[in-house]
Design brief:
The protein has 10 helices and no strands. By secondary structure, it is mostly helical.
Length: 170
């Protein structure tokens, strides 16, 4: 079986992102839920994106940057939800690539990745803004698995990033 070219992956990725934004469109303007309230509306560092707040957020050593690194869209939920949808799409592509690298035929890998892509349980990762850490941790974990055979050092770095993102990546 010939490897999938980067152009093919790019086309699949763009197509999947369009489909994801369409399928999850109902969640894109959803409200804050659960832990979102503590991290976004109640967070004084992101109440506005004027110059003092933005410069504080961009200072990597400052408290605002450490407390709000994932929350740069202020009080508008759409940006957070679109980000989560696009990250979820990227994770699904990584999952499909992992299935291919495991020897699963293309049709089976695509079907399994599509099942993960569309499964109702994943709506939580899109609709719950604070779950961005779960999406990113899974992405780094899959990147670690994909990189291990050819770039073991990079694989270790991806795994460390997954753990730093969310300890459940372990």
């Amino acid at each position: 079986m010939n490897p999938v070219s980067w152009r093919t992956w790019l086309a699949i990725g763009v197509g999947a992102a369009v489909v994801a934004l369409f399928l999850y469109r109902g969640a894109l303007d959803g409200t804050f839920v659960s832990d979102d309230f503590n991290h976004v509306p109640s967070n004084p560092h992101i109440q506005s994106l004027d110059w003092p707040h933005l410069s504080a957020l961009l200072d990597p050593a400052g408290l605002p940057a450490r407390a709000t690194s994932n929350y740069a869209f202020g009080l508008s939920t759409r940006g957070y939800h679109v980000t989560n949808v696009l990250l979820h799409t990227g994770v699904c592509l990584l999952l499909g690539a992992f299935y291919l690298s495991s020897g699963i035929p293309r049709a089976g890998a695509a079907l399994l990745a599509a099942l993960f892509f569309l499964h109702p349980a994943n709506v939580e990762a899109v609709a719950w803004i604070f779950q961005v850490k779960s999406i990113v941790a899974l992405g780094f974990s899959l990147a670690a698995l994909l990189a291990f055979p050819v770039l073991p050092l990079a694989s270790g770095a991806f795994f460390a990033l997954a753990l730093l993102t969310k300890i459940s990546a372990l």
